[in-house]
Amino acid sequence: MITKDIAQKFIAIVGTENFDDSKAERLVYSYDATPNLQSLPDAVISPRTAKEVSEVVKICNAFNIPIVPRGSGTNLCGGTCPTNGGLVILFRHLNKILEIDEENLTITVQPGVITLDMINEIEAKGLFYPPDPSSMKISTIGGNINENSGGLRGLKYGVTRDYVIALEIVLANGDIIRTGGKLAKDVAGYDFTRLFVGSEGTLGIITEATLKLIPMPETKKTMLALYDSLEDAAKTVSKIIANKIIPTSLEFMDQPTLEVVENFAQIGLPTDVKAVLLIEQDGPEAVVNKDIELIKTICLQEKCISVSIAKSEEEAIALRTARRSALSALAQLRPTTILEDATVPRSKIADMVNAINLIAEKYNVKICTFGHAGDGNLHPTCPTDARDHDEMERVEMAFAEIFEKAIELGGTITGEHGVGIVKAPYLELKLGKEGIAAMLAVKTALDPNNIMNPGKVFAKDSRKRMLVSK
Questions:
Q1: Pair 219, 438: CB distance under 8 Å
Q2: Whose CA, among 78, 96, 409, 434, lies 20 to 30 Å from 225?
Q3: Angle 349-362/389-408 helices, nearest 10 degrees?
Q4: Residues 152, 320: contact at Cβ < 8 Å?
């Protein structure tokens, strides 16, 4: 509860124009991209400096006011929905690129910088930041770091965590700490940098980040392979990796997804095949040419019915854009779109996709599957309608079974979207009660009053216990 006296304390720090507790403003920040989930905050605040963030947090800690740090609200697991009310912190003022250091190959940014804007600035200097979440046109770096976002290039280059080398963080008591640095080696103390990446705002607030850059690849090529069998597509993925080729991206779309994406993008994607693989390789031209030819041979050996290489960068961009637009395309089908992610070992992709199809049939729901086949990260997506309570119950049961299947196959409940509130009941399936207890010990030590994004990651009820009780 934010009283008038507490509101005046906040206003004294950030100014009247940067604090808003009107119902209209609270409504705007009451939800994120997660369907069927909404809760009003008590107020919204926009600090201008890390010092102001610190002072705001000190007040919240003193009065037990929940804090939800928020970027652009593209979160898909309810991670930035203020389910406990409290204060939503925006970073519209903390949105600057502070430095591009070409000698050390780093960039230092504030959390409100839009991911694609940062990438464009980097590439203008001939440098490369590989993480490329599909939401990068609107997502912020702070959000990417909090969720440890992935993307199409994750197979070869890794995810956000692999490029964060230093952070400035405001802790729950208002202390400001700095972790890491522009260093190739640093083993001085605990690795707090990696701890905070992916912590979903539950441990502290990131106010500055230094990211590692690499040289821009010399060239790249993109190909599309078509299959009449999910199993053949999956075998191709495994065989490419077994041949010691690590493509930049190795993406998968099933037939239902293809139909919707082609209707949306209109670029001539085939819709009469069971699956496609979108494969890209980058690097020195000779290496890329060699790898692409070998990948093409492997695709044909594994019963690919057709394989084509993009004839121009424009054609390659169209293919990548079509893949990135899968969620937007699927969102046109029904009023509600539930996009999930589950990751399995790449050798189990066919088993997982077949299981998803059987589960969809069992619960009489439509599920389209696409994702990052190279790292086993699949995105089963259900077009539905939140107003149809019976169907929503079946959708929930279907996804619960999908998560259980992923764990059974040696996978996990989320590869890049995070836990938030939606996946929290399933976390014990992956970590066990001992793992949850260890995480909670860290959370309690850093945030004893539980003001940092409360209600996220740690569920009141475990799905594991709920399943046992049935």
A1: no
A2: 409
A3: 150
A4: yes
Tell me the average pLDDT across 386-397: 94
Query: With contact defined as beta carbons under 8 Å apart, do 102 and 127 qualify?
Result: yes
Cα–Cα dist 405/352, whole Å: 7
pLDDT over threshold 60, residue 469? no
Task: For residue 3, give both structure tokens.
Answer: 């009283």
What confidence tens digit (pLDDT) does each residue in 86-97 have?
999 999 999 999
| Residue 329 pLDDT grade (very low, low, confident, very high; cuts 50, 70, 90) | confident
pLDDT of residue 323: 82
Q: Which of 229-233, 328-332, 372-376, 407-411 has the highest mean pLDDT?
A: 407-411
Q: For the structural domain made of 97-215, what CATH number should be given? A: 3.30.465.10
Instruction: For domain 4-89, give the CATH number.
Output: 3.30.43.10
CA dihedral 37, 38, 39, 44 (to 10 degrees): 120
Do 277 and 398 contact (CB within 8 A), yes or no? no
For residue 251, what are its two tokens?
A: 């993406």
DSSP assignment of 34-58 equals STT-----SEEE--SSHHHHHHHHH
- Token reading at 229: 């069998």
pLDDT tens for 150-176 read 988 999 999 999 999 999 999 999 999
* Residue owning tokens 């992935």: 150
CA-based nearest residue to 372, from 204, 230, 249: 249
The answer to whether 172 and 204 have CB atoms below 8 angstroms apart is yes
Amino acid identity at 142: G
User: Tokens 């997506």 sit at which residue?
Assistant: 381
Quick check: 315 pLDDT over 90? no
Q: What is the CATH number of domain 219-325?
A: 3.30.70.2190
pLDDT for residue 201 is more than 50:
yes
- What class has domain 333-469? alpha beta
pLDDT higher than 50, residue 432: yes
142-157 burial by CB neighbour count: b if 16+ within 10 A, else e?
Answer: bbbbbbbbbbbbbbbb
